[in-house]
């Protein structure tokens, strides 16, 4: 060892690690304090495969109060040492975890696919990559997220430190069961917090299997734990007196309850990533092919089960007929690639479960009296939860299908005349997550980017996000932001240190 620290010997590279779980050997236990343990709760989760409704498992741990308490206690015990781990060591654990996730990517995607139904090529691989890249992106921030200092001319030096919050948690949805992990655990761990992951009751298997990699990557016991469970488990976490922060992604209704539970308990910090009814606005002067393809992809990716899907499409009158013809054709093409998520030719899988299928079917049926059906409108096959990519045209602004988040491959399409009119319509929503503006006029694009009330605006693109830049919504689409430096701020508390220089 030199003063510069240990040097690598030849052949010291990380050894290949074999994930002990796969789709035929699912992990059903909680991961607490770096050990897999049975839940102390007798109740279990039941999971079905959405491609045919068949039973996948009915014996998956459902964390109850004693389990949540055990995880919180382990996290509290781990926190003092974890926050003092050197930045390079913490970074290296995050990088190692990213590599391990990537190496086992296909196994993770297969475990997720069993109960989500997302094909590997179109969505499964994308969200595994997002997960691994989340740990890399935030691993790289560990030694770069600096504090602040302010002028000392008045005799006082002011230093602002970014302090970790302590025990933090992520309550995540089923539509991106792994992608969400990188986006939440990444910034939490990078800033020295302990993190408890609560996956959705509809997609627990990848998250539970992650425990083996957490341990292998070198995270100390209690730093990163996984509690499978349902909404009740989430509520125990959100109302826990010793959890300091919850980062939530899911429905607006649940987000509201989490904010309430946080307020009623210990005023824990809350980040909410909720629903949307995002508009795509297509102007006469756009590149039509580009606009049509973004709009069709936006509402069909992951079978429309994406919070920032552009589900309201507004097209200016001059290009309307041409747009409709091309859009209808593309949506019909999408219907042709709906099918078994295990088949390589499949692009769109089923909806996640019977509840979501019934919900979307309800919108499809009621939609027929709220607009005219341009394409789709029905279900596919006689087993599983498959629906046709669907577009309703000429829908009144106050119709249910124009107001409510459907969370399926269902868009509403309307014509507009003027910029003023469309800004008002785009903003006439309780949501404000994403918007898209399709035009070749840079001034108009910039005007709309300023005028539309949403957390994100795409110009000549829509329904996309990047780890580097804030992700989240205005109005009832959320509170706070994920991704970028914004997420690091959401997982830290600024502490102002004032130094008297004249003493
Ligand atoms: P949900 O909001 O009920 O569930 C999301 C997560 O919150 C899950 O982990 C769940 O266990 C947990 N949860 C549920 N109730 C809770 C409670 N009272 N306290 C704490 N945690 C709780 O969403 P869902 O039931 O899976 O889906 C319903 C609708 O939500 C969908 O149709 C869709 O509109 C919307 N949704 C949005 C997103 C998104 O990315 N914004 C993701 C999933 C679902
Ligand atoms: Mn729910």
From TrEMBL:
Residues 36-497 form the Aldehyde dehydrogenase domain. Keywords: Oxidoreductase. The keyword Oxidoreductase applies. InterPro entries: Ald_DH/histidinol_DH (IPR016161), Ald_DH_C (IPR016163), Ald_DH_CS_GLU (IPR029510), Ald_DH_N (IPR016162), Aldehyde_DH_dom (IPR015590). It is an enzyme of class 1 (oxidoreductase). PANTHER family: ALDEHYDE DEHYDROGENASE-RELATED (PTHR11699). This is aldehyde dehydrogenase (NAD(+)). It comes from Thyridium curvatum.
């Amino acid at each position: 060892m030199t003063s510069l620290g240990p040097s690598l010997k030849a052949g010291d590279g990380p050894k290949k690690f074999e994930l002990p779980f796969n789709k035929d050997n699912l992990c059903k236990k909680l991961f607490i304090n770096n050990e897999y343990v049975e839940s102390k709760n007798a109740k279990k989760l039941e999971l079905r495969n959405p491609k045919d409704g068949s039973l996948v498992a009915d014996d998956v741990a459902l964390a109850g109060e004693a389990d949540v308490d055990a995880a919180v206690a382990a996290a509290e015990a781990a926190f003092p040492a974890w926050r003092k781990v050197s930045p390079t060591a913490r970074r290296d654990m995050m990088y190692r975890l990213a590599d391990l996730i990537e190496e086992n990517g296909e196994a993770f995607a297969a475990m997720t696919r069993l109960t989500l139904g997302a094909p590997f090529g179109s969505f499964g691989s994308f969200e595994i990559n997002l997960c691994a890249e989340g740990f890399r992106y935030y691993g790289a921030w560990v030694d770069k997220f600096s504090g602040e200092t302010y002028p000392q001319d008045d005799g006082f030096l002011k230093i602002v430190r970014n302090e970790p919050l302590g025990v933090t948690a992520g309550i995540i949805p089923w539509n991106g069961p792994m992608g969400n992990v990188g986006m939440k655990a990444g910034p939490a761990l990078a800033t020295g917090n302990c993190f408890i992951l609560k996956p959705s009751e509809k997609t627990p298997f990848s998250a539970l299997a992650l425990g083996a990699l957490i341990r292998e990557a070198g995270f100390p016991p209690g730093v990163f734990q996984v509690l499978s469970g349902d909404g009740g488990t989430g509520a125990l976490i959100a109302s826990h007196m010793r959890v300091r922060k919850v980062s939530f992604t899911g429905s607006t209704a649940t987000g509201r309850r989490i904010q309430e539970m946080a307020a009623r308990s210990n005023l824990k910090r809350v980040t909410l990533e909720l629903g949307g009814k995002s508009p795509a606005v297509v102007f006469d002067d756009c590149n039509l092919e580009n606009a049509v393809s973004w709009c069709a992809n936006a509402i069909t990716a992951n079978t429309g089960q994406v919070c920032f899907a552009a589900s309201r499409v507004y097209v200016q009158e001059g290009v309307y007929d041409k747009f409709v013809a091309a859009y209808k054709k593309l949506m019909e093409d999408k219907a042709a690639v709906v099918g078994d998520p295990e088949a390589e030719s499949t692009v769109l899988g089923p909806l996640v479960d019977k509840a979501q299928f019934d919900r979307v079917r309800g919108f499809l049926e009621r939609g027929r009296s709220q607009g005219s059906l341009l394409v789709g409108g029905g279900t596919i096959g006689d087993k599983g939860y498959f629906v046709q990519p669907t577009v309703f045209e000429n829908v009144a602004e106050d119709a249910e299908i124009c107001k409510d988040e459907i969370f399926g491959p269902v868009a509403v399409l309307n014509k507009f005349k003027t910029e003023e009119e469309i800004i008002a319509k785009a903003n006439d929503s309780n949501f404000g997550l994403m918007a898209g503006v399709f035009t070749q006029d840079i001034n108009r694009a910039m005007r709309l980017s300023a005028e539309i009330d949403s957390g994100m605006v795409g110009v000549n693109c829509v329904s996309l996000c990047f780890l580097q830049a804030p992700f989240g919504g205005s109005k009832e689409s959320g509170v706070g932001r994920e991704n970028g430096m914004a997420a690091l701020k959401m997982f830290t508390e600024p502490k102002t240190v004032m130094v008297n220089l004249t003493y």
